[in-house]
Specification:
Elements: E1 3-8, H1 11-22, E2 29-36, E3 39-45, H2 48-64, E4 68-74, E5 79-86, H3 90-94, H4 99-112, E6 121-126, H5 129-151, E7 155-156, H6 162-172, E8 178-183, E9 190-195, H7 197-202
Parallel strand pairs: 5-6
Antiparallel strand pairs: 1-3, 2-3, 4-5, 7-9, 8-9
Helix pairs in contact: 5-6
């Protein structure tokens, strides 16, 4: 899905720059604010696919018997992040440790993919729960990696979901002086951050 990220001192100026790059007018696009300080907006074209997603979510709110707001944020060519906020069902739709939200993602993807190519992926979130959890897990893993290097000790991370392990491993790739090991099997697998003692002594 085509989109452009632009920043400027005001939202209006950022959008104007994005319109110039996309070579369209304001009536042909939608936008979301990615950051407020500094201002960054993501501008994407109105398409038939976007209209289908919007109508789908509106119908979903009606079936749930609640009102709400939502944001559609293209992530890349084939991935769309959809953040929903309901009037009164957020905690129910998230569930304990996000388990209901995980199942909701699976079901809604199945329903939407009937109208989209097989390689399209939809990420549903409720009040940014999923996004905030991922940021927390990654930041905690980075802080733990720094402790492992500083104290020359191994640290076992708290149990996390399969896809979250991939996020953590990817986030720690750029940190020198550690390696990641896995202990356990299946869903019980945990990540262990192991300091590279040889590397530590080489640079201290």
């Amino acid at each position: 899905m085509e989109f452009v990220d632009e920043s400027d001192i005001t939202i209006e100026k950022a959008i104007k720059k994005a319109l110039s790059k996309l070579q369209v007018d304001i009536n042909s696009v939608k936008y979301v604010i990615i950051k407020k300080d500094p201002i960054v907006v993501r501008v994407y074209k109105r398409t038939e696919e976007i209209e289908k997603i919007e109508n789908f979510i509106k119908e979903l709110f009606q079936k749930l018997g609640t009102k709400g707001k939502f944001q559609i944020i293209p992530q890349d060519k084939n991935t769309i992040y959809i953040n929903m906020k309901t009037a009164d069902l957020d905690s129910v739709l998230i569930g304990k440790d996000g388990k209901v939200l995980q199942e909701l993602n699976y079901l809604l993807n199945l329903m939407l993919k009937k109208s989209f190519p097989k390689n399209f992926k939809f990420i549903f979130d409720i009040s940014s729960y999923k996004k905030k959890r991922e940021e927390y897990i990654i930041n905690k893993a980075i802080a733990t990696a720094k402790l492992a290097i500083e104290n020359k000790l191994e640290y076992t991370l708290d149990p996390i979901k399969g896809y979250e392990k991939k996020l953590v491993i990817e986030a720690l790739k750029s940190i020198k002086g550690i390696r990641i090991e896995k202990v356990g099997k299946g869903k019980r697998t945990k990540l262990v951050i192991v300091p590279d003692v040889k590397w530590y002594y080489c640079f201290n």
